[in-house]
Amino acid sequence: MRGTVLATDGLSGSDITLAKSKAGRVPGAIAWSPDGTKAAWFEMGLGMVSTPVSIMIGTPGGRGVAVYSSTPDMTPHVSWGADGLAWGTDCSDPTQSLLVFSAAAEIGHNRIYGIRFKAGKAQPPELIAEWTLTGDGSLSTWAYAFSPKGQYLAFAGRGDDSTFGIWLMAMCGSSRVQTKLLTAEEIGGYSGGGDPVTSMDWSRNGDRLALSVTTSPDIDYPWRDLKVVYLDYQFADGTEQVFSHSSPFLVDLPDLNYPAASSEHSPQWGPSASGATCQRIAFSQSSDAGRALFLLDIGADGKPAGCPIETPLALPSVWPRALDWR
Predict the structure, then answer these.
(1) What is the pTM of this model?
(2) Residue 301, domain member (yes or no)
(3) Which CATH number belongs to the domain containing residue 51 in this structure?
(4) Which domain holds residue 193?
(5) In the prediction, which pLDDT does 145 show?
(6) In this structure, is residue 183 part of a structural domain?
(7) Per-residue pLDDT reduced to its tens digit, 65-87
(8) pLDDT of residue 11
(9) How many structural domains comprise the chain?
(10) Could you read off the pLDDT of 155-199 as tens digits, one per residue?
């Protein structure tokens, strides 16, 4: 049942290991399949730019298997990123699923590619959409989130004119219509020399996006804050609709657990804690003391007050970076 297991990458702090990376390989990003039976993640050779980046698939207790590997001289080549991976229902065929990831046909221009799983078998990577967001069609993307039913994909991206934003892309049909959901000004992140939004997740109720937003100009160590966007979302007659949005609310994290110099990464929504009002989220937090994994319930206007977990609850995990709920 989806929502019963939380997976992280890093050193194990639990009794269950999904899969172990081979010696000299480092994992990054985790995305569970829509049915919760498999997980996907990136693996790359540690400190070796020319080594292949692989997309791995595995089941709990099983052995990871590469479904695609590439080096920088291949087209498309997988772009290494902390959270550039998402797995949702294939809107063209609900019996299938679609794993999307960052890849590039040329240096500096990431696109969204996808691997479809038909009858459980991975198909060759394909370009999900041709871009029309800038004059020459160029766009770099790096963070993704599927809507609950897979009919929309939210992604963070930047065009060649340096215009940054978060877009929604319709995934049903062949038109792949893209609409801008948030501008850089609405997000409130720092975009000079870095990516304003490094990871995101769409809540299971469909009414919220969680963002890890870069808020500091320090390129060597950019600080990031957890923000929540509230959506006007409806699902009726088998169709998802997203009507409007609000500017993101900065989540008010208690100073007890979060010093001023801390960053929040890889937000992932879990099962609702108390109906639709308080929704549970997991995320990692880094500071000079290292990294830690927390759960928190978030209510209206990005505030945890009145929810079952008002103060972030630490979970046993060592150096968590990417995470996702099963």
Answers:
(1) 0.86
(2) yes
(3) 2.120.10.30
(4) 6-325
(5) 95
(6) yes
(7) 889 888 767 777 786 655 688 99
(8) 42
(9) 1
(10) 987 765 557 788 899 998 777 888 888 887 888 766 555 567 888
CA–CA dist 155, 97 (Å, integer): 18
Q: Name 316's Cβ contacts closer than 8 Å, sequence gap at least 6.
A: 13, 14, 293
Count Cβ atoms below 10 Å from residue 269 Cβ, excluding itself.
25
Residue owning tokens 């049909």: 173
pLDDT in tens, 109-166: 677 889 999 988 999 998 887 655 544 445 567 789 999 999 999 998 776 555 778 8
Predicted confidence at residue 16, as pLDDT, reads 46
Distance CA 72, CA 92 (A): 31
